[in-house]
Specification:
The chain is α/β, with parallel strands linked by helices. The chain has helices spanning 48-60, 79-87, 108-114, 128-135, 140-153, 173-183, 209-217, 284-289, 294-306, 326-329; strands at residues 15-19, 65-69, 94-99, 118-122, 158-164, 186-191, 222-224, 234-239, 246-250, 263-266, 271-273, 282-283. It has one domain (15-329): TIM Barrel (Alpha-Beta Barrel), CATH 3.20.20.70. It binds S-adenosylmethionine (SAM) and iron/sulfur cluster.
Length: 331
């Protein structure tokens, strides 16, 4: 029987996000500040060997979905090599990556060949001026080329993550839906979360997924797609006229989905995080580097999972933003 990792709120943990670097070549203002970021020293970052050792233990306990993320995962040397090793772990059912796609156009095929199943590309605007405003870079054509290359390489379904911020890119939601239809993409609109390093988050900047869905549906009528699993974060909709692609809404602020959360995270510097909004981290790197046995690692992981928070507190008056932000945690 496949083992099951269960937390103390009876949630089954099946999904591990592995951050391979805290560094990034973009400066999305909702994630990193424009000023110089202080990167973790290289010696503190887990080696691929260490990542594989931990991933093997997680997978042996029933984690069957792995996602490689960052920072920007494609700036770490030979991430394809890591993907290939993760793909060959027995028990991995799904292997995905989240990337800004800056380096994807000529590497999508190689990633697919290495064993990557799916890819999620972050793209917040379809116009060069606003893309630059949001990312601090002027690379929209590169990202679009990356999307096309991912489709061509068969990294299906190619998902596009769009963080929506009121007054900045919310008017482009129907244009994103048009792109989903044209290219057969799964576009997912994400509510802006208080996980930004620059501390610019304000509730008024959040556009609810429901508001966006209504706006899109007034242009392209939508039909609900049934969730494949209760742990699915996006509420998904396809086009009523049968056009390819779909839109989804990830609403952590207005419709929290903590009750079905199946995720944990391993940061680039070797900390387990049991929630995006955790205010504590669990240092598995020190244990690993002190020569821990497999049994030691298993005990640590089981004890850590048991501490997974019941829910986030974004909507509580006493909410405290975690010290480490999205690019360090691994979104
Ligand atoms: N650099 C890669 C990328 O951008 O796709 C991977 C890491 S990034 C931290 C992962 C995802 O987190 C991206 O889709 C990004 O848009 C999202 N993200 C970052 N900060 C966020 C915030 N404050 N609220 C909501 N989503 C955020
Ligand atoms: Fe970099 Fe991704 Fe954060 Fe943008 S969202 S700054 S691409 S880590």
């Amino acid at each position: 029987m496949t083992p099951v990792l269960r937390d103390s709120h009876n949630r089954v943990i099946r999904d591990l996000r592995i951050s391979v670097t805290d560094r990034c070549n973009y400066r999305c203002f909702y994630c990193m500040p424009k000023e110089a970021m202080e990167w973790r020293p290289r010696a503190e970052i887990l080696s691929y060997e260490e990542i594989i050792r931990l991933a093997e233990v997680f997978v042996s306990f029933g984690i069957d979905k792995l996602r490689v993320t960052g920072g920007e995962p494609m700036i770490r040397r030979d991430v394809e090599g890591l993907v290939a090793r993760l793909a060959s772990l027995p028990g991995v059912g799904d292997l995905a990556m989240t990337t800004n796609a800056h380096f994807l156009a000529d590497r999508a095929r190689g990633l697919k060949e290495a064993g990557l199943r799916r890819i999620t590309i972050s793209l917040d605007s379809l116009t060069p001026d606003r893309f630059a405003l949001m990312t601090g870079r002027s690379d929209l054509p590169r990202v679009m080329a990356g999307i096309d290359a991912a489709v061509e390489a068969g990294l299906f379904p190619v998902k596009v993550n769009c963080v929506v911020i009121r007054g900045i890119n919310d008017d482009q939601a129907p244009d994103f839906a048009a792109m989903a239809r044209e290219k057969g993409l799964h576009v997912r609109f994400i509510e802006f979360m208080p996980l930004d390093n620059g501390k610019v988050w304000r509730r008024e900047m959040v556009v609810s997924g429901e508001e966006l869905r209504e706006r899109i549906a007034s242009v392209y009528p939508l039909e609900r797609v049934a969730a494949e699993s209760p742990a699915e974060t996006a509420r998904r909709w396809c086009f009523a006229d049968g056009a390819p692609g779909e839109v989804g809404f990830i609403n952590p602020v207005t419709q929290p989905f903590c009750g079905h959360c199946s995720r944990i995270r391993l940061t680039a510097d070797g900390m387990i995080r049991t929630c995006l909004f955790s205010t504590v981290e669990h240092d598995i790197k020190s244990l690993l580097r002190a020569g821990a046995s497999r049994d030691d690692l298993v005990s640590f992981i089981l004890a850590t999972i048991a501490k997974k928070e019941e829910r986030h507190h974004i909507n509580d008056r006493d909410f405290v933003q975690p010290l480490r932000t999205m690019s360090c945690i691994g979104g």
